[in-house]
Amino acid sequence: MARTLAVIGDRWTLLILRECFLRVRRFDEFQERLGIGRPILTDRLRKLVDNFVLTKVAYQQHPTRYEYRLTAKGLDLYPVVLSIVHWGDVHLSGRAGRPVVHEHVACGHVFDPVTTCSACAAPIDPRDVRVLPRGGPARRTTVAASARRPISRS
User: Fold this and answer.
1) Which site in 19, 31, 64, 78 is 20 to 30 Å from 103, CA atoms measured?
2) What is the spatial distance between Cα 53 and Cα 55, in angstroms, rounded to a whole number?
3) What is the pTM of this model?
């Protein structure tokens, strides 16, 4: 966890990532939407690029200007960002309720993020999880092997 927090663990970085998932890509847009100073924004974007969470793509020449796009590594942070947003919605919204909701485009329903087991698709409750040493018990099924098995929906 400490290694992850070293990359994404401060307020501005998480807000930048939220904006990336809202399809914000340009420096000036980040600055305007977040009210963040140029030096801080420059530093956080550089850190995300250096850690391959974002990539810089030129969209203009003379002067050269860049967009910041999520990499595959960055896209893998979506469940993390969504979970943080959901926690805030549940615990900090007050009477006004959620400022926004998330709609699953494929089915058209508003949803709440749910963590499920990659092997059996059951919802995960922290009281039902055991942390094992690296490698775990000899009979442990790997995620890759369990992902090949069909999920029964009974």
Assistant:
1) 31
2) 7
3) 0.81
